Queue: 2 jobs
Job 1
Amino acid sequence: MTGRSRRAWTLRVAVAAVALGAVAPPAVALAAHAALPVSEEGLELSTDGDAFAPRIDEPLLRTDERIVPGGTSTALLYVRNTRAEDAEVTVVLDTPPSTPLWQVLDVTATAEGRSLPVAESLEVSPAGSRGDQRSVSLGALPVPPGGVLPVRLTFTMDPAAGNEYQSISAPVRLNVTLSERLDGAASEAVDRGPWPLHLPSTGLALSPPVLLAAAGAMAAGLALLLAMRSRRTPSAAANSDPHDRSRRQSPDVPS
């Protein structure tokens, strides 16, 4: 590797599961799972914006919370830059291969006034065909030393959702990257999605989320992947991602 060497750390936090409850009318039951340890230098997390720690054990979603048709639930995570230098956070929300669940459950990612729905345009894949994954990026958001970035996920269930959706599952993954800012200048905030990644429709190629069983229903998992790395040098960044050709721009929605 030429130029500045790149340091990378990866961690995975199991946040919660979204279970479709076997009740009438149908409801989404939010079951929680304890978070795995976070041990990244320069990165601390919080669920309330006050108490920060290298790891979080409490769930982002309440264990007794349920979403009925027409209802909404919100998960909120605070990311703090504990470095002495400026950094930037990139937020990307990945949806799984196409599933009928996205016909009734919408997910929106919000940070620093940027808000993007990620599931509204997904189509149901025919049986046996390859589905695709949609990813949206809120762009690179500057965070000063000691600065805090709230990242919000909002789940909304269609008022017309029926019992036929209560046994469907699908994982969703939030990627938060805390990166060094070279020369103290923020990178241009560019939305790189949504775009198809052509993953198998089974979803097994995705990083496995935590799937929790609910009585009489299957669970939809939600996992949170956080990574912290130093930015690449301009020469390294010049190596284009082969998937970039298939990515299409999606405009930001101002607050």
Job 2
Amino acid sequence: MVDLGMKVVGVSRKLIGAPQRIDVSSGEGHTGEMVLVQGDVTQLRDISRILNWTRKEFGRTDVLVNAAGLFHNFRITSCDPETLKKMYETNIIATLLFSRAAVWEMMANRTTNGHIITISSLIGKQDMNAFSGAYLATHDAVRRLTDVLEAEVKESLLPISVNNIRTSHRLVAKKHKDHIPIQDITPEDIAKAICLAVSLDHPY
């Protein structure tokens, strides 16, 4: 995205202090830049602060990429409830709240070609023996959330595209019968898919 000339704002809970500019361009001649800001995407106040900072720094928000996620492999009935709550807040609530806020921000800024992209998993029922139902349910919820948001945006004729980029997994067993998720596609593949999505004009 930086190589496309975009101003990219990344959000990190662990960042301490002021926003940090990161050099991630692949060559000379690119006008894009990457800035990391501190924030917790499960918190409304942080979401508002991040969008306000982006508006003041770069003028507006045109693209949102929801990529935050937690994985815990446990049973609902035997897990720590606070850990379960945090996973659902990160995987579902953060996507819901940030997407909603981004739509309003784009409307306020009169964007003509907005994009909301959510990265989720293709893990399905066949993987129940390796992944907990609690984790799988978050991905089902995110996919449904994306479908509903896309329908609302189309109904309102907003110039915003809503996409869900799904990563696939292949499962292999170790001798001690643990299951390890291995991505069939690379982070570079996901980045290319995101860049393709944001380079297209909205269809309505």
